[in-house]
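Researcher: Here's the sequence for the chain we discussed earlier.
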Amino acid sequence: MFSIMRSSSVHGVDGNDISVEVDISNGLPQISVVGLPDPAVRESVERVRAAIKNSGFSFPMDRITVNLAPADLRKEGTAFDLAIAAGILAASGQIEGSAFADAVLIGELSLNGMLRPVPGVLAMIDRAKRNGVRKVLLPVANAREAAWIEDMELFVLSQLGDLRDCKEGGWGSLRYTGGIESGTANGGEQAIDDEECGDYSDVIGQQHAKRALLIAAAGRHNLLFTGPPGTGKTMMIRRLPGILPPLTEAESLEVTKIYSAAGKLSTEARGLMRLSPFRAPHHTISAGGLVGAGSVPKPGEVTLAHRGVLYLDELPEFSRQVLEALRQPVEDGIVTIARARAVFRFPAALMLAVSFNPCPCGYYGHDTAEKRCTCSDTAVTRYRSKLSGPLLDRIDIQLEVPRPALKGLQTETDPRSSLTSAQMRGIVQTARDRLRRRNAELGITGSVSRLSGQSLRRAVLLRPGAHTLLDNALEALGISMRAYDRILRLSRTIADIEGSEMVEEEHIAEAIQYRRLQL
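Model: Thanks. This is the structure I predict for it:
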């Protein structure tokens, strides 16, 4: 007696189709699971046995073999429980196996036969849809998340006994009719809450820093702030999510799939994540926690910050190994982790924002009558040695944030000082829209911070004077070719903010001065 069911697993942050094949033959009563199962899958034998008995079915007292195909792909997690149980019941003639021929079964079983939710449902159902499958049986608790994938027929089970209602020709009583609720997964809000993020209109002074943040947000450029304590570095960067426009539909699905696969998506979430993620790990994080780790790797902080911001406060306090692990994700927008049986690739198209003091005491080069630097030259050198040249070369905007002069702070007349986060967000959105239109005309994909080679040259329309200025800077300042390209990208963003199709000399000059920080 043989049956086959469809199920799914998560590989990295993407779904994988898994065939659950069940064979029941004469022999000593035993059940074995083959196909590279991990311990959680092997333990499913006992969960399935108890669930079948406690749901009013009969567990076959024969030799049962369960094969999870493809056999060369490691299987992990508890999402196969429902498919294994249904396969056993179909092979033993207790339910109609043909009724499940065009459906994917996902769910974990408890010993009493109740179904529990599993992580990664969004990625699994997205994969099923891409492969032409439209029916999904899953736990009630996962139904809301699953409904975010359009054009799918969802059927929900609260217990294994509900399989009796699954007959060929119709499962009407199990159909999910909850629909998609309005709102989003980011706290249930579709609009950005400026009060929660903090508003830039509250920041007095620091106009150059706010200008840098505006440019970084518009082009998704990496950003570095350094300066003495109390100048507002952390406060301003933590307000950065408030000026980032909502994610597009495709970006929302990407980000939500990542959080679903990582098990960090609340079952109470009301829709796809529309707001850019903001991740700020503590400096004690390991390299594995940052980029992903494990025998079957899970997404790290750089992947959880995909399409958003990864903020590293007090950068030199992070270990050198952790910081060097950022090189590939920051440059390529992807994390590649190799294991003996598989290679995992995690998306990491993030905006890196970092801040730190100039020395351990915080006042090197910023002595005042009350505060003077107490660090030796050796201590300062050791403190800054964590910041390697290759990593700094990947940061587009490097800015010193000094202590603002007290005189005149309350009576600033610069019109930019009154810009709110909402107004800055509007400028960022306009610049990004201009970029998308240009890229569509040129047949280019991606943000300006990811352009390279011929795509970058086609997108950056330089005036002759601007080209000459940049070439002179290459010779005089000794900048690297990577920095040369990054200055081009940065100047393109500045021109978009100013509403200019051509990159002028002043745009190049501003981009160059963001690379002149002496560390």
